[in-house]
Every structure is written in structure tokens, then in C-alpha cells.
Design a protein that fits this description.
It is built from ten helices and eight strands. The protein is α/β, with parallel strands linked by helices. The chain has a four-stranded parallel beta sheet with strand order 2-1-3-4, sandwiched between helices. Helix 5 crosses helix 9. The longest helix has 13 residues. The radius of gyration is 18 Å and the shape is globular.
């Protein structure tokens, strides 16, 4: 007699019974996955795969890593995730985030979000049009990011990077920037004109200082990781308000 197979019911999963988030990060990134797990409510699981980022082998590693996306999407299809988050802020300066989102969603036949898309959604949700940007990026990336946000109708009141290691000029070792460094950076770029602070880069640890900075500065603090997780969670149909991670997740 032929075996009978049941259609999987996600509510019966031991883990991820509310939502499985598939996460794509550049291979050196150690922060996004860690902070996703810290923010995840009960019943939400995070499943990470990586795009090879060859910082020392090619001239343009951000563009180069896109060639590894097909294999990554195949891996996520096998995981049967509910939503995919493509988590790389600076990649949107090379390939339009709308194009990446559509490509990922088609590749896994599931909803998809990108870091840049969720950042813009976050500013809209918070009613923010004037932002101060802090990052671990070199000047050329900061300038490209400023130009991009201004093209989206935002006013950039400040734009500053903190460079502690030579490798940051190749977009490496951003995960070694400490939360103390991040706090100091946020305070430097703040001004009365800025309606929000944006801490850019998915590989810079920020989760431990978001609430403190919001209380101290009296305005929202949006980060690449926080915004991406918020967007992925909402796209998966999970509407929990989460405390301790900034106004974005607590109020929207």
C-alpha cells in the first residue's frame, strides 16, 4: 500500500511555528544573525545563508557576491522559509533594492524584503524625513548613501563614518566597531534638525544601544538590522510589538 503523506502544517513545527525567516548576509557578517535571534519573539526562527564576499580577491566585492545568489536561493527553498530577508545595506547602492527584492521573492516563491527597502519603510512609518546617518563605512560609500537617500526625498543632516581598522575601507571588520563607538558616533551626528538617527550597516552591532540613544536624544533610532527584522517579521504576518529594540518595533 502506498504511503500517505500529509501537507505540512507550520503550526506543528517544533521551532518556527509562527514564522521561519530566511536570512541572506554577506559571508563576513556576524552581527545580523545574532541580533535577529535576540529580537525574535517566541515561535519565530531564523535560518541564515551566506553570499561569498571576496574583499581581497576582486575589485568590486559587493557586485561580485551577486553571482552566488542562485545557490543561496536554492538553499532557502529547501528550508521552506516563510519570508526571506536580503540583509546588506550597501548592496542597494549597486543594484536597486526593488530589483533585488523581486528577484529573491521569485527565486524562493515567498515574500522577500531587503534592508534598504525596510529602512525606507521604517522612515515612512515613523513619519521621518530628516535623518542623521552614522556608519562604519569609508567616505565614498557614505557619500553614495547620502546621494541615494536624498534621491528618495529625504534630507540628510549629517553623514559620518567611524573607521577604526584599515579593512573597513574594503567593507570588512565593521563588526569590530564597539557599541561605545556607536554611541559616540550617534551623539556626534545628532542635531536639532535631525528627526531620527540612522545607524547604517548590517554588520555593526547596535541593538544594545538603540533604546539608550532614543531616551538620551529624544528621537527614533533606526538601524539596518532592526529595520530589516521589523520588515521581515511584518511580511511574515507576525505583528508583535517588541520592547527594548527601539520605537520602530515597539510602536509599529
Amino acid at each position: 500500500m502506498a504511503a500517505e503523506y500529509r501537507t505540512p502544517d507550520k503550526s506543528k513545527r517544533p521551532y518556527g511555528w509562527r514564522a521561519r525567516i530566511g536570512l541572506i548576509v554577506p559571508s563576513p557578517n556576524t552581527v545580523t544573525e545574532t541580533e535577529f535571534w535576540q529580537m525574535a519573539p517566541e515561535g519565530v526562527s531564523v535560518h541564515t545563508t551566506r553570499l561569498l564576499y571576496r574583499a581581497d580577491e576582486v575589485d568590486d566585492p559587493l557586485s561580485d557576491m551577486e553571482q552566488f545568489l542562485p545557490q543561496t536561493l536554492e538553499e532557502l527553498r529547501g528550508l521552506e522559509v516563510d519570508v526571506v530577508a536580503y540583509a546588506c545595506t550597501a548592496s542597494a547602492l549597486k543594484t536597486p533594492h526593488e530589483e533585488t527584492q523581486a528577484h529573491v521573492a521569485e527565486g524562493v516563491a515567498r515574500p522577500a524584503v531587503t534592508t534598504m527597502g525596510t529602512i525606507l519603510d521604517a522612515f515612512r512609518a515613523l513619519g521621518v524625513t530628516k535623518i542623521a546617518i552614522g556608519s562604519p563605512y569609508p567616505d565614498d560609500v557614505n557619500e553614495a548613501e547620502r546621494t541615494y537617500f536624498e534621491s528618495q526625498g529625504l534630507t540628510v543632516t549629517a553623514d559620518e563614518g567611524v573607521i577604526l581598522f584599515e579593512a573597513q575601507n574594503r567593507l570588512r571588520h565593521m563588526n569590530l566597531v564597539t557599541e561605545d563607538d556607536v554611541e559616540e558616533l550617534a551623539e556626534r551626528i545628532d542635531s536639532p534638525e535631525a528627526e531620527a538617527i540612522f545607524l547604517s550597516c548590517g554588520d555593526m552591532a547596535t541593538l544594545g544601544v538603540v533604546d539608550k540613544l532614543e531616551q538620551r536624544l529624544g528621537k527614533p533610532v533606526v538601524t539596518s538590522v532592526q529595520a530589516t527584522f521589523w520588515g521581515a517579521l511584518r511580511a511574515a504576518g507576525v505583528e508583535d510589538k517588541i520592547e527594548g529594540c527601539g520605537r520602530l518595533l515597539a510602536e509599529h
